Sequence to fold (219 residues):
Amino acid sequence: MIVLHWIDLAFSALASLLRLGVGAPANGRAADVKEPLVLYEFEGCPFCRLARETISESGVPVLVRPCPKGGKRFRPNVKTLGGKTQFPFLVDPNTDVALYESAAIAAYLDKNYNGRRSLVRFLGPINVLLLQFSVIARLGAVVRKKRSRPPEKPFEFVGAERDPRARLVKERLCAMELEYLWRPARPNERTPLLIDPNSGEERIGAQAIRAYLNDRYRP
Ligand SMILES: N[C@@H](CCC(=O)N[C@@H](CS)C(=O)NCC(=O)O)C(=O)O
Fold:
């Protein structure tokens, strides 16, 4: 089991390498928001990764509603809210803005929430190719949707998009369609960290968090 974990982690690190370090911890001061933004996304989608990278670097808190393929919990909301089933889809309750299109989402976050405008994002087709390779590196991990019991209140999660360990957790949260308030990590924070307001429990580290989710939220 431990060997499988290290192999999984190695491929997650490869996925980060293929993005040339984009999705780092938020360096500047996170923009103040009255209410967290809401992101509908899934891990196997390269365009969703671009949206998450920008969120990670801006430091803005976002309520993530995972919509894996075949998911029933949050997927239908996207069509109701925006008119079509396309991901990523970002809703900002502070400005009443709702956006499809990863490039538009990144530009919106740059403008309103101190995004960092990483160079890779300006490489056009090369950027898209790297996003796709990065998703392919994790393909085995992101296609399996898992049944789960929904928590009453969303979890709180701290991690950066480029952190391979945080990715292992986000993939599991996505596969189980578990909603979480994502606070992008700051430099030198101990992460990934999951706080469960339903039980008051906290876990640090990918293995500990995944074991907790399996124990508590698998039916
Ligand atoms: N040009 C769009 C492309 C978005 C897109 O193609 N998303 C795919 C997932 S990668 C999607 O929504 N597929 C429909 C589905 O999953 O049901 C963007 O940059 O956001």
